[in-house]
Design brief:
Layout: H1 2-19, H2 23-37, H3 41-44, E1 48-59, E2 62-75, E3 86-92, E4 100-103, E5 108-112, E6 115-118, H4 121-132, H5 135-142, E7 149-158, E8 161-169, E9 175-181, E10 187-196, E11 201-216, E12 219-229, E13 232-244
Antiparallel strand pairs: 1-2, 1-13, 2-3, 3-4, 4-5, 5-6, 7-8, 8-9, 9-10, 10-11, 11-12, 12-13
Length: 266
Amino acid sequence: MKQVCLVLAACWAAGSALAAETAQQRGKRVVDEALAALGGQAFLKIEDRLETGRAYSFYNGELNGLSVARLYTRYLSSGLPGKLNQRERESFGKKEESSAVLFTEDGAWEITYRGAKPLEDQRYANYKDSVQRNIFYILRQRMGEPGLTFYSMGSDRYENRPVEIVDITDAEGLTVTVYFDQFSKLPAKQVYRRRNPEFKDFDTEVSLFGKYRDVGGGAKWPFDVRRDRNGQKIFEMYADSVTVNKGLTDDLFTLPANLKILPKPK
């Protein structure tokens, strides 16, 4: 009986401590737990990453294309808030050398045998926004950034599992809402709204994460990713492998000096 009372007292004390947390404290604790679940220092020491697998694109909810995908990412040294601090190269199709899309801190290009064509300004702006509001980029590159705040929206259920919901907002007022699995502590879903300049309203962007695996040194990464826009599926990727810290070379993330630069779309 005495042991039972001690256990109950300990549970009550733990519950009271959690109840005493402010929404800001609870939000920060949940985010810190997620970083630890992803591997802590092992996750923070990821310098580059290669994801290979199958990618599916959708239009109006219907399958529009599928291909072999290779996504190369390199993190840059943290700089000023709002600055893109990573480079990414996306290659789709069996022949990797035939085409690719390159995103850097200074711009983005579609690369083919004809040359490098700069992407439209809005597409690049959307890419930057999606990266800077991605929970994994936030955890890797933006923690400690001035003005970054965490606010707990409480708990709920997602996919029949309990989740903690946290709003993460930066100094510019841009917010992403992240759902963290209460058992694994890992991100399961994120949601944010982005203004659509064409229709003068907002798009709701949703990303779902699953099938976490160890990718080296104790760091974890989701192998299944899905993106929805305004309730319709637009992209899915099922990775067969994810490797990190392989010393990806500069030529993957820079335009060759002799490559022809094509006119930018109007």
